[in-house]
Design a protein that fits this description.
About 10% of the residues are buried. It contains two helices and three strands, in the order H-E-E-E-H. It has a three-stranded antiparallel sheet with strand order 1-2-3. The chain is of the alpha+beta class. The mean pLDDT is about 80. The structure holds zinc ion.
Length: about 60
């Protein structure tokens, strides 16, 4: 005599998938210092700065990020 309800034991998988999704988002690396660039400030056609590291970028570099 067996009780099949034992098979219904709740099982919670660790949220590995959620961590992987977050990990897949990689900020572009700053061409000056290699730190992740979250955003680029543009003060003019030739004045771009990576944030938060603050490195100055050329127009081509800023466009590629
Ligand atoms: Zn930098």
């Amino acid at each position: 005599m067996s009780d099949s309800s034992d098979d219904a034991t709740p099982y919670y998988e660790p949220l590995v998938d959620a961590e992987q999704l977050v990990g897949e988002w990689l900020a572009p690396a700053c061409p000056r210092c290699g730190d992740p660039v979250v955003w680029v400030h543009s003060r003019g056609p030739d004045d771009h700065r990576a944030s938060p590291c603050g490195c100055r970028l050329g127009a081509v570099e800023a466009r590629e990020l």
